[in-house]
Amino acid sequence: MKRNIVIATVTAAALVAGGTATALAVTGDGGDSQVKQSSVRAADDDRDDRDGRDDDKADDKAERAADAADAKAAKVTAADAITAALKSVRGKAVSADLDDEGSSLVWDVDVLSSGGTWHSVSIDPGTGKVLGSHTEQEDADDTAEARAALKGSSVTAVEAARAAAAKGTVTSVELDDDGRTPAWDVDTTAANGAEKEWKVDPRSAKVTADTSSDDNSSDHDDNDDSDDDGSDD
After folding, report:
1. Which ranges of the chain does DSSP label H, i.e. alpha helix?
2. What is the pLDDT of residue 122?
3. Distances from the Cα of 99 to the Cαs of 88, 146, 148, 231, in angstroms?
4. Are 73 and 47 in contact (CB under 8 A)?
5. Is the pLDDT of residue 229 over 70?
6. What percent of the chain has pLDDT over 90?
7. Given a cut of 60, is residue 28 above it in pLDDT?
8. At what angle do helices 78-88 and 157-164 cross, to 10 degrees?
């Protein structure tokens, strides 16, 4: 089960005034906590919705440029964002994603507490500060699967992110408990915007290409003409 918590339901009534915005996030105990705005603005891919093969290529190029800009703008690494989230709430990190929420860029970190409650913590990718968090209850079976996978992994989300950082800028880390053997799925973005997917062994932290992803083969072909793929290998 690849977990994608739909926590974008941060019931956000964004109040925009004077160039600033705030939102209210619903917490597990029924109270409200203020969510501050990120200091980092998300890149605009500036795509045109026109028909034609050439436009599709232009759209892809613009999207990659935006992805590269977002990855570069995030001064706080995935590992540091997860560490910051775990200082805010107790539990074990299950995933972290660099997402654009409106015009802002944030790290969304999902943490599973010992009591079975899921926490979604927003981290500023520019400062590493906690912007806000909220909780929700997940399906009991999904929670049990995630907990079992975490128990069988001696490599934490932070360690997985650090291991994969040698392959490019980490933009996503997620515990994959679908298969027979749990693993950490990690996405990286190269300097040219090309995205690749990796598997991090939950016991050895060994990083290997995710061969189950079609994106990796296409990105590999696209990078044949590029001298800089954002990797340290």
Report:
1. 53-73, 78-88, 140-151, 157-164, 214-222
2. 96
3. 19, 22, 27, 22
4. no
5. no
6. 50
7. no
8. 170
CA angle, 201 as apex, 2 and 223 as ends, to 5°?
Answer: 80
At 158, list the tokens.
Answer: 């932070």
Q: Which amino acid is at 70?
A: D
In the 8-state DSSP scheme, what is residue 165? Answer: G
Residue that is written with structure tokens 């981290």 in the block = 123
d(CA 184, CA 176): 6
Torsion (CA) 198, 57, 125, 132 in degrees, nearest 10? -100
| Selection from 13, 39, 42 nearest residue 25 by Cα | 13
According to DSSP, residue 225 is labeled G
CA 37 – CA 14 distance, rounded (Å):
10
H or E element at residue 117 = strand 117-123
Query: Please, how many CA atoms are within 13 Å of residue 213, restricted to the half-sphere of its CB?
Result: 16
Tokens for 90, please give them.
Answer: 């107790």
CB 109 within 8 A of CB 93: yes
Q: Which residues is 97 bridged to in the sheet?
A: 108, 172
Q: What is the DSSP letter of 42?
A: P
* Dihedral class, residue 128 (left if φ above 0, else alpha if ψ from -120 to 50, else beta): left
Is the pLDDT at 87 greater than 90? The verdict is yes
Residue listed under structure tokens 């010992």: 114
Name the residue with higher pLDDT: 219 or 67.
Answer: 67
Confidence at 214, pLDDT banded by 50, 70, 90: low
Output the six-digit token pair for 119.
């926490």
Cβ density class 25-46: b for 16+ within 10 Å, e for less: bbeeeeeeeebbbbbbbbbebe
